[in-house]
Amino acid sequence: MDTQQILINLAAILAGAAPLIFATMGETITERAGVVNLSLDGKMLLSAMTGFAVGVHTQNVLLGFVAAAGVGMLVALVLCFVSLGLRLSQTAVGFVLALLCTDLSSFLGNSYVRVPGVAVPAMPIPVLQDLPILGKILFQHDLLIYASFLLVPLVWWFLFRTRAGLTLRALGERPTTAYARGVPVLPLQLFYVLLGGALVGIAGAAYTLDLKQGWSYRHIAGTGWIALAIVIFGGWNPWRVAFGCYLFGALQIFATRSQNLLPNIPTQIFQVAPFALMILILVLVNAGSNPTLQRWIEQLPAPLSKPVQQVLARLNTAAPAALGQPFRRP
Description:
globular
């Protein structure tokens, strides 16, 4: 593989991971606020279909993204009403919404299958696009991909360098303590879940209006579950979550390129491989907290056991302490 091809692949990884960046940052904010959102996959599908449909009728990409963000917020509002207002199981509500939104996207989007639509225009940055190496990798994309570059440090800065971010993290760790200090827990949870829903909606439209232009039956089915897995993999930390997004993007590019090198292997294997590998990585991340796996690791030869335990200890992460627990005023 020559240098030019390597640069093209690196640029493709950054572009392919951009929608996942939006989805995972939205989910990170939501779960840091203490709310489990399992509706991600269906929400992304419904937002993707809505964004594409609005783009087709208005011939305006921006309105497509606005509509998709609105759908994401609407689904998030339903989640908040049922789980925060009525205090029903957030896990059960999320699953039901995921199934409902998936079926709605198929039903409502049937007339838009294989219909040509609008797309996000390319926007190379003058001067910077001509830089050696970095120009081709970073500065020959579109506005959506540039925004994904900025979103990760912005979310990290907000979470860990601002007072509002500290309050947000308190919602997911110790909401009762936050309430005792005068924090309006439920209104803030509602706000952050809606914000996360808007970002997930934008992620859905990013596929149909940019990365995988057009709409088809269950266009990006499964991507929302991968986004959820990446958030867990990243330990609800924006930088680690972003690394998971780019890792998954790299696995997809590798699987696509490998089809030409191994023509005798069915293409379905290459399509499924990134998802299977991401699940394997997720298992390894959580292996440190599994007693059975710990015992197996301890039985390994001494020179191997200790390094494995150290790596797993670094990868192991803990969820926000109050995640999924409905807040009740004292």
